[in-house]
Write a structure and sequence with these properties.
The chain is α+β, with helices and mostly antiparallel strands and 135 residues long. The chain contains five helices and four strands; from the N terminus they run E-E-E-E-H-H-H-H-H. The chain starts with 5 loop residues before the first strand and ends in a 15-residue tail after the last helix. The model has no long low-confidence stretch (mean pLDDT 77).
Length: 135
């Protein structure tokens, strides 16, 4: 249990990722006898800075609940790549992927570069097969 018998009311300068933030109003700080290099800001101070932690946690919880498994949507959009095929079938599948990228907002002026990148290396497969390790 922490105990505090003293307080002070300084003007704080907080170092944040966005840079220093100066609090214009002095903030009462309780002095706690601990060897910690930091202090805890209360909700009232955070609210004065426009930071509503409860609201942010609520939004995060809602976002997590609203997130569905994006794979379902993705699988519906992808061409059927579940069967082994020929080079021609692979070429057609890659062409469909490029066409889908363009239909979903990929800049048309970069289509040729996209095709070059997609076809540059022989890394694509219609089916991934796992082989037993030898030995």
């Amino acid at each position: 249990m922490l105990s505090s018998y003293n307080s002070l009311t300084p003007r704080l300068l907080l170092n944040t990722a966005a840079g220093p933030v100066a609090l214009h109003e002095p903030v009462e700080c309780l002095i706690v006898e601990e060897e910690e290099p930091e202090f805890i800001l209360g909700q009232d101070v955070l609210l004065s800075l426009g930071i509503d932690v409860d609201r942010q946690l609520e939004q995060l919880a809602n976002r997590v609940n609203d997130v569905d498994d994006g794979d379902t949507e993705l699988k519906d959009d992808l061409p059927d790549l579940a069967h082994p095929g020929t080079d021609e079938e692979l070429s057609e599948a890659l062409d469909r992927l490029v066409t889908m990228a363009l239909a979903n907002g990929f800049p048309h002026k970069l289509e040729e570069k996209l095709r070059d990148i997609v076809l540059k290396h022989d890394i694509w497969r219609l089916e991934v097969q796992f082989e037993k390790a030898l030995g």
